[in-house]
Every structure is written in C-alpha cells, then in structure tokens.
Design goal:
The chain has 427 residues and is α/β, with parallel strands linked by helices. It contains ten helices and 19 strands.
C-alpha cells in the first residue's frame, strides 16, 4: 500500500488587507500615523472613500484557506481546481514553503520541486546556465549532480542558443520552459506545478504533460493546478475542489471536474428564450432570441441519443435592415472545439427589414459522445464581422445503450464505421 507523502491537517491561512507594504518604511510609518490620527492615508490609491469604508485601510482580515485537511499518497497525481481566488495558489505556496500557515500543520516526506510563477527562483541578472546551477543547489543538489543533468535540462527546455543570456532578457515563455525543465529534472519526490504552463506554446505544454506523467510513473507525486479541465482529466487520477478557501469536494478526477463545471456554469439550455447575458455583442442590427432542438420527426427534444441526428432551429429578429450568415460551433464540457458548421456559400445571405422575424433550420449529424455539450451561434454581416453571438447554449447527448464498450468513451467525437468479416488470403 502506498504511503502518504503529504499530510495536511486543519490548515488555514489568514491575510490582512493593506496594513503594510507601500514599499518603503517612511510610507508605512506615514500611513500608520494617518490611521492613528483618523486622517486619510496619503499613500492610498483610493481617496474617495472614508477611512472606515475601505478594507485596505482598516486592516480587514480574510481567510485565503480555512480548515483544509487532506493527504496525498506516493505516486499519486492530484489535481487542484477551483475559481480564481479559491485558494489554490496559496495552498501550493504553503506546501512549497514559500509562505507559512496561520493555523494547522503539514507533514511532508521527500524533496519538493515546484514551479509556481513565471521566473520563480530565477535571478534576472544571472544567465540561464547560472540559474540552473543556482536552482539545483537551492534544492539540495551537488554541483556534480547538476552537471550530470545539465544537458538534459537544456535540451528539454529548447533554449540552447540562449542559455548564456541573462534571464531578464527572456520572454515569459522562455522563463517557463527553463523553469519547468529545472523543476522536473531535479528528481524530486514531489513535483508541484501551478497554472504557469498556460504561458507556454501547445507543443511545450504537451511535452510537459508527458514529463509529469513520467514523474508519476516513476513512483513520484505530482500536484497540478490548471484551469484547463482537459489537461486535468488527462493527467490526474484524483482531485480536490476548492471554493472560498475550503475543500467542497474530493474524489476521482472526473467526478470533481464535473462538479466544478456544474457549479461554475452560466449556461442556458436549448429550447428556452435566450437571456440578455448570453449575448456576447451588443446586438444593434440583429438579435438571436431562441434556439430549439428537434428530432427528425420535428418534435422538440433536449437530449438526443448517440447516433440520433437532430435539427437546430434558430430564431432571430431584425433590429434594422441588414444581411448576414450563420455559423454554429460545438464544444464539449472541457472547452474543446468539436466542430463548426456554417450556412453554405450557395445559400443567399439572409436579409430583412426592421422587426422582421425569421427562423433557419439545420440538420446536424450527431457524432458527439455521450455527455454535456455547448453551442455557440454567431451571425456575421457581409464584411464577416459578428453582429450577434449567443454563447454557452447547452445540451446533453445520452448513451445509445448501456453496453460496456459505450460506457468507456475515448476521444472527442464518435467515428461511425462498418467492419467486414475477415477474409482468408492464404491457408
């Protein structure tokens, strides 16, 4: 049975707004004197509010984390997800010993290597080569150990030409490349990676995902924070969902991601009049006001089965005379684009006068896997500029049956196929 390498017990972290931190001792003392005398802070960026109404001036406290408890097993890849401000980065900083908790305790077994922010641990005046050695020594490696790993680190980062250039001249993407390469090749027992990979290009992100999988396969532990749910599902086996500094759910990664997506959803279902907040543009020429889903017999449905084709019926009204075309894009729950369709070139542009109401219907070949999906419908004028767009109209696709092979789906769409019986070529 795998041992726990991280054990977090009743962990809390409290911050205090704006009490110190103007950058100089003189300004901090100046602000403190103003507060004691009941005067407005001369260094405050907010001057229109009274002293009592501004939390930054009164030193109001808030809990970035509150009573967090969990443990992580050896070799486990744990995804940590939640909205911005939920406490993810604070938790990782405490685990990486960048900051200390206000309450609770953490027990860690093994060496930690972390990549929390772009350029973390790099000295801007030193070259990439010097920073590799500096980081390695900070993590307890000898100079000989770093030398043995150096070529591998530089090769993985892909910035060989610039390794002797000061890091202050690196782009954010180059910083991330070198930072991840160092963190992942120091052979830590625990690797902690925050959302920094979002800065890198697609090719390097895939490279990093593969490296983190290799780290896990080698029996080491990975803690991964990302807003890309497809990456979380691909890499992690289990996850925790943070909300307002508290763990609201923990379990298998698919279960945690589904709960997060459901809690953060601002979607609207098909077959409903579209709410104003669903429009991405100010619709001054045209308004898409309803989208219906119909089966092949013309009956309204909200959840077709796999392989069951359906129709989308789009309702729109003209605010002023114009002409336009329609595009419809389909997305899965992880934010992956599945495909896009548009009115064909041979079809004339739709035109109308003020207050005219029209519908247009399109038949969709249902190649979607079972699960939740979204539609984005866009109307474009003759200059191909969007004049209205309705986002996040959701629908569900149901399994065609409960057969075992359909219960475990792979990919993003289903590929229909017909197999022929094997033919004997020789006997």
């Amino acid at each position: 049975m795998h041992k726990s390498v991280i054990k977090v017990e009743n962990l809390s972290k409290e911050y205090r707004f704006g009490v110190i931190g103007h950058g100089t001792l003189y300004k901090d003392v100046q602000s403190w004197c103003a507060r004691i005398r009941g005067k407005e802070d001369p260094n405050s960026k907010v001057t229109l509010h009274s002293l009592q109404s501004s939390p930054a001036l009164t030193g109001e406290r808030f809990w970035a984390l509150k009573d967090i408890s969990f443990d992580v097993k050896e070799g486990q890849v744990l995804g940590i997800i939640g909205r911005n401000g939920a406490g993810k980065s604070t938790l990782l900083k405490i685990l990486s010993r960048v900051t200390t908790p206000t309450e609770g305790q953490i027990k860690i077994r093994g060496r930690i290597s972390s990549l929390l922010e772009v350029g973390t641990g790099f000295h801007p005046e030193l070259t990439g080569r010097e920073n590799v050695y500096l980081n390695g020594m900070i993590h307890g490696m000898t100079k000989a150990e770093i030398k043995n790993k150096f070529d591998e680190i530089v090769d993985f980062s892909g910035i060989e030409r610039f390794i002797d250039t000061p890091v202050k001249r690196y782009s954010s993407g180059m910083n991330v490349r070198l930072g991840f390469a160092v963190a992942a090749h120091l052979e830590p027992e625990i690797l902690i990676v925050d959302e920094v990979l979002a800065v890198g290009d697609v090719e390097f992100r895939q490279k990093c995902m593969g490296k983190m999988q290799d780290v896990s396969d080698g029996g080491r532990t990975v803690l991964f924070v990302s807003h890309r749910m497809s990456a979380i599902r691909e890499l992690c086996q289990s996850g925790i969902l943070l909300e307002a500094g508290k763990i609201v759910h923990r379990g298998p990664i698919d279960e945690v991601v589904d709960k997060y997506l459901a809690s953060s959803s601002s979607d609207q279902n098909v077959n409903e009049d579209i709410l104003p907040r669903m429009h991405y543009y100010d619709n001054t020429e045209l308004e898409i006001y309803r989208i219906e889903m119909l089966d092949t017999d013309g009956r309204m449905i909200s959840a077709p089965k796999m392989n069951q084709d359906f129709y989308l019926k789009i309702f729109f009204k003209f605010i002023k005379p114009c002409s336009f075309t329609i595009t419809v894009s389909f997305w899965d729950a992880n934010g992956t684009l599945l495909g896009r369709i548009a009115t064909p070139d041979k079809m004339a542009r739709m035109t109308g006068n003020k207050d005219d109401v029209y519908t247009i219907t399109v038949k969709v070949n249902n190649v979607f896997l079972a699960g939740n999906h979204k539609i984005i419908v866009t109307a474009r004028d003759k200059s191909d500029m969007a004049i209205d767009q309705v986002r996040n109209i959701s629908f569900k696709v149901l399994p065609a049956s409960i057969k075992e092979d359909e219960a475990h789906q792979y990919g993003v769409v289903q590929i229909n196929s017909e197999w022929r019986a094997p033919e004997i070529l020789t006997s």
